[in-house]
Amino acid sequence: MELCMITYCTVTRARDQWLFDDKYSRLVDQLSTHFDEIYFLASAPTKGHKVRTPDGRSIYTYAVQAKNTHFVAVAPADTRTPLGKKLLVWVMRIPPYFKYIKRSSLVYITMPGFSGFLAHVLCRFLGKPYCLYFGSD
User: Higher model confidence: residue 127 or residue 88?
Assistant: First the structure.
């Protein structure tokens, strides 16, 4: 059984390891024992996105340990991205979202956000089961 996770996370890469928010990393590690494969779709950092310390280290420190996790970089956007470019980014995210949602048995979607909304619409279109995590600061 395969799980596709679509979140608003940004990932960094250091020493051949994927680093991102420690809460999501730990969640992925815990879920990995229940799935054959996990596809984690997240954006790579945009220029100016503060994911590195002044000396170049990632601000994220926890690396996913699970060997059955595959990270898929999608087009990045953040709150500072102009609306026109953001619309283009959302269109560019449709092919990878469609591909990995279609091949997965279950989709874990983090809301709020347009990425989560887009994933929800694609799950409905493809008839895929999904669960929504709605969180806020």
Answer: 127
Rounded Cα distance, 6 and 97, in Å: 8
Reduce the DSSP state of residue 122 to 3 states and report it.
helix
Mean pLDDT within 20-47: 83
C-beta of residue 134 within 8 angstroms of C-beta of residue 112: yes
Task: Tell me the pLDDT tens digit for each residue of 73-106.
Answer: 887 776 677 788 878 888 888 999 999 999 999 9
Whether the Cβ atoms of residue 81 and residue 89 lie closer than 8 Å to each other: yes
- The three-state secondary structure class of 127 is coil
Neighbours of 106 (CB within 10 A): 18
Please give the full DSSP string across 62-114, using - where no structure is assigned.
PBP--TTEEEEEE----TTS-HHHHHHHHHHHHHHHHHHHHH-SEEEEEESSH
90 touches 49 (CB < 8 A): no
Residues pairing with 39 in the sheet:
4, 70
* Single-letter amino acid, residue 22: D
Residue 118 in this model has a pLDDT that exceeds 80: yes
